[in-house]
């Protein structure tokens, strides 16, 4: 009992937001949420394109990808983002695992690798383990189902033979693979390093190296695409976009697009549930070409999504949100070159297809010149590997020969990187580095310092969590988009073309009255240089100076109200940290009436916060563990489902996903869904979904006995009684199929996992049959030792249908079973479903399949 209580409290301090994506379905998310809640956590499921809940509510985010809008804010707020496997690791260890080892961040490029080591020297082993752990991977001392790679020098080691004997899906690689990955800082293909016949040991030095198409940069190889993607041109054929749902998009005048194209883009956004605006303060997304101008600086400082037209087309094409910082050419370009790149002449070698186009455009964006041919006047050769005539010529001419990482990281850091760095001159023997092109991300801190600098670090919009770390920070926080704007932030197309001083947008947030008054507002150094190259301390335009002064004065006037407003924005029941001390040098002096309001707010804060905590702690105990299937009101309505589940939990009803843990099953009728069929084996109370509807409507826990599920039509159709089935289940105690050996073809309709769960719920043993599995049953051996002579142990069943690809396996199945002196039975899945639904054994004869039946069906 103590162990169970400890287990339930494992996540008691955690509130987890589970983020759905194409790799994490809503059903999987609900299963994860159920496991977390049963172990003490609070959970929220987020399914795009719904509005993301406030980050401050969560301690962890669970996602298979970093492609969700608040990832950058979560990183800044130090909220860990973990993959679903983190939950399993925590439960296995009985403690919270290090979230870094389970991060989906691709910068931790070994985060999908679980290694174990074979017969390699101790020093190499420690170095490899350390490198893998540092780059997001995991080490396992033993071979397990989670292991993905065995590091070994030979395929004849004990671990390698074990993997080969059990045909485990584990790659056996040389240590050289990790060495090359760590040197490059990228994960490359394992195939040239895979035992028993690694290519790097047998290939001739001058043998051609294969090239592979890099799909990661498709749609991101240029900053200025020529036209709309063909997949979104016709609104009649394309599926409805959701990526712009409830989003406001601003198209800057510097894009230089015509009225017709602009109208097409606006129509696509509007059809997808979004809108187009010309006011940067109201926009969620800014699309522009260059890293300058008033809208760019304002949107960037307010942490809005800023991308170029290529990024916008990418969102339209894939209907999935990605950060514009993820790919270098999805972000606006600079009008000026990277310092040191002007005059460089760069040629490419061994890059093909989209990767080559991407690098050509990237060279142009740096300010250098990209040459189609290599000449002695070139300065650099960027190559994917060292085996080419261009590489030989470049070395003879004394040119710099580097890989694309030098180019990408120079652009990302906006600084010419040294060609002497070993990472930029390393070329693995049998790898074409074109496969890892486009994996470099832009650095937000570099962009801020270079293109939209603040007067101080406090001027940058703070993350939600940091805004509540200190009293001083708490008084004036960063929700600048809701709290303040300059006197007029509405930007017309003509105004956006006029260059503005980069420091001309003062901020009251994060700056006290004294610090604003005591420091001059200045534009960045590059903007203060005149044509003679000297600094110009006085703005050239008197009207610009006046507008700055007017804006500053206006912000000073409203600063006290901003401070109070920001406090109220963070209230649960009052101000979290109270006000400033009288001794604070930058304390805002308020009138007596405002002081009284502030003091009253603080008193309400303490009382309301205490009350909120008391209500949270007094959440009613769980009296019903409810498994739900077929509830139509939640279909495609994630917000309502999450809201209803929270309301049910407040009534003492916990919605679970595992049939083993349910005390009640709710369904609109008798269904043959996995949830319904599995649940019957545990004999729960079965109620109509009207029970859920009425509990939610009346906001009280009703008696489930008043809502029994009655479906005489289905009972007649399937030939069983639901009440009798529940009684039988209680007598069977999950042992109805005990001793039964059941196989299932891999291509069975409904999936092997669904039928395996039904067999497991009823005590049987289910295995996948691919036509090459040897017959072995550990359960049979233990049952034979008991001396019970049951007929089921003399028959082995195969769940199949009469489609040709499955019929081909029948002969091998019969041969396998007959070799063990048993009788093979090939049956339809209805045999298993009828047994599980009625909780009684049915003879197999009425369900058997034969080759004659298959021929007739053809």
From TrEMBL:
It comes from the Eukaryota. Residues 452-552, 587-618 are annotated as: Disordered. Residues 6-104, 104-195, 336-424, 616-709 form the BRCT domain. Gene3D superfamilies: BRCT domain (3.40.50.10190). GO terms for cellular component: Cul8-RING ubiquitin ligase complex; nucleus. CDD domains: BRCT, BRCT_BRC1_like_rpt2, BRCT_BRC1_like_rpt3, BRCT_BRC1_like_rpt5. GO terms for biological process: DNA double-strand break attachment to nuclear envelope; double-strand break repair. Residues 470-491 have a biased composition (Polar residues). InterPro entries: BRCT_dom, BRCT_dom_sf, CellCycle_DNARepair_Reg. This is DNA repair protein. It comes from Aspergillus heteromorphus CBS 117.55. The lineage of its organism: Eukaryota, Fungi, Dikarya, Ascomycota, Pezizomycotina.
